[in-house]
Amino acid sequence: MQRLFDRYLGPGWRERPDDPAVWENVDQIPDEELWRVHEERKGALVAEVDSRARRSWGEGTAGAARIVTAGPFLDPRILTLGFARRFTAYKRPTLLLHDQERLHRLLTDPLRPVQLVFAGKAHPADHDGKRLIQDVHRLALDPRFAGRIAFVEEYDQHLAKYLVAGVDVWLNTPLPPLEASGTSGMKASVNGIPVLSILDGWWPEGYTGDNGWAFGEEEIPGDRTAADAEAVYRLLEEEIVPLYYDRAPDAIPHGFVRVMKQAIKTVAPRFCARRMMREYSEVYLAALGLAPADA
């Protein structure tokens, strides 16, 4: 992605990453080049996951069941959703597993299949988080889902680097209003990975209507699990899956690539350290009675 930015955005993107005008040049990136880079990153993710599974098998550190759930059957041609963060109850990592029959239809559609990649760890004292990991493992082992669910163990920064650049859609499903921010979605967006998120944390500020997908803006008394799961399934079935598989004669999903470009353009300048430091300095300087030029 940096090579693309260097070529089409110019050096300003490194010097002024908080300038929206710099990022308008994302539109100048040819769809085929952006898609080719994305396919390379997706292939690298699948290769990394496969390598981890093979290594665990070769070292004898994991049995057959754990290898099956670790992602050896991932296919880079399939629409891939990514969920990688700390496993804890309020983040609801299993929201998409709520209706297993509907999920089965999505994942095993013969013409437009979907696959899920989970990664993360639970705090040693978080028993609910550990149970959620077990729930994902159990479903990943279910032969009905044809290896389309993977839980990649030993989540760390190295694996995160592959995930935030290699999946097709970044999934975020916390229970509102408990999400503090959501920086993984920011990183995914700058890599051209659109976000599918509930409107909580950073997404009410980040979502523009055409740079990803949003749900859950309404207040729902009591348990909102079923309603939120329904919203996610509907967005996948009616918008995301058709858009991803709508291919032109050149085999590129140009509509999906437009969302990728919007994600980069709208998120990169607004959610960066330079913008944060600039705005903090303005607040502190104003409190001291100083103008920025006086500092």
Helix-strand blueprint:
Blueprint: H1 2-8, H2 12-15, H3 20-23, H4 31-59, H5 64-69, E1 79-84, H6 100-107, E2 114-119, H7 127-141, E3 149-152, H8 157-166, E4 169-172, H9 183-190, E5 195-198, H10 203-206, E6 212-215, H11 225-245, H12 254-267, H13 273-287
Parallel strand pairs: 1-2, 1-4, 2-3, 4-5, 5-6
Structure description:
The structure is a single chain. The longest helix is centred in the N-terminal third of the chain and has 29 residues, at 31-59. With 295 residues, the chain is of the alpha/beta class. The protein is globular. The protein has helices at residues 2-8, 12-15, 20-23, 31-59, 64-69, 100-107, 127-141, 157-166, 183-190, 203-206, 225-245, 254-267, 273-287; strands spanning 79-84, 114-119, 149-152, 169-172, 195-198, 212-215. The protein has one domain (19-272): 3-Layer(aba) Sandwich (Rossmann fold). A six-stranded parallel sheet has the order 3-2-1-4-5-6, sandwiched between helices. Helices cover 49% and strands 9% of the residues.
